[in-house]
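User: Good morning. I'm curious how S-adenosylmethionine would be positioned relative to this chain. Could you predict the structure with it bound?
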Amino acid sequence: MNAAANPARPDERDLPDFNGLAALYRWMEYATFGPWLCWCRCAFLPELKRSRRALVLGDGDGRFTARLLATNAMVQMDAVDASASMLRSLLRRTESHAYRVSVYCADACRWQAGSPPYDLIVTHFFLDCLTTAEVRNLAKRLRGAIAPGALWLVSEFAVPQNRFGRWIARPVVAVLYQAFGLLTGLKVRSLPDHVASLRDAGFTLEKRRTWLGGLLVSQLWSAATEKEPIPAAQSPGP
Ligand SMILES: C[S@@+](CC[C@H](N)C(=O)[O-])C[C@H]1O[C@@H](n2cnc3c(N)ncnc32)[C@H](O)[C@@H]1O
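Assistant: Good morning! Here's the predicted structure, ligand included:
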C-alpha cells in the first residue's frame, strides 16, 4: 500500500474513521438500500471503456474499482481513501488486477495527485463526506490533474425540490448523517453543493440518472471544452 507513510491515520485533520465499518459496509448497504446504490454506481460503467488512467476517491471497500477493472482491461487506477481497512478490502477485491491498482491512504482533500493526467475521476458517495468549500477546492485542484476531455463520474444522495424531497429524502439524508456521525465521527451534516462546485471548476454535466424518486443520482461530468466535446454526449436532465 502506498500508504502515505502511515496506514492507520493519513494525517492530523479531523477525518471520519471508516475503519470499523470496512468488513460490514457491504452488508449495511444491502440491508438499507438493497441493490440501488450498486445500480447508481454502475449506471455509466459502459461509458468508461476508453478510460486509461483513473483516479477513484473514497471508493471504500473497492467494489466499484473491481467492476471497472473487470470491464476495462486497459485502465490503470489510483485509489485514495482515508481508511486503511477500506483500502485493504479494495486490494483483496482487486487482487487479480493488482498490477493495475495503486492505493494511497490519504486525505483526498490534501493528496497530491499520484500519476496525472487522469482521464477519469470517480467519486461514489464520497463528496457527501465533504463540505461545499472542500468539494469546491478539490474540484479546482483536480481540474489541474486531468487530461482534456476527462470524465468525472459522481454518485450522490440528493434532496429533490418537491414533496418527496421535503417529506422523505430530506429526513432519510438527515438520518444517514446522524448514523455516520455516530459510527465514524463524520462532522458534515448536510449535502454539499457539488453541482455548483464542479461547474465552477470547469466541468460540464453530460448525463444524469436518478433512482428512488431522486434520492440517488448518478452523473457523468466532462472536462470537455467546446473544442473537445465528448462523443455521443446527451443533454443533462433538469
Ligand atoms: C460513505 S463511504 C463511500 C464508499 C463507497 N465509495 C461507496 O460508494 O459506498 C466514504 C468513503 O470515503 C472515505 N473518506 C471519507 N472522507 C475522506 C477523505 N477526506 N479523504 C479520503 N477518503 C475519505 C471513507 O474512508 C470511506 O471509505
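The helical segments are 25-33, 36-42, 63-71, 84-93, 132-143, 163-184, 194-200. The chain has a mean pLDDT of 91.
Let me know if you'd like a different ligand tried.
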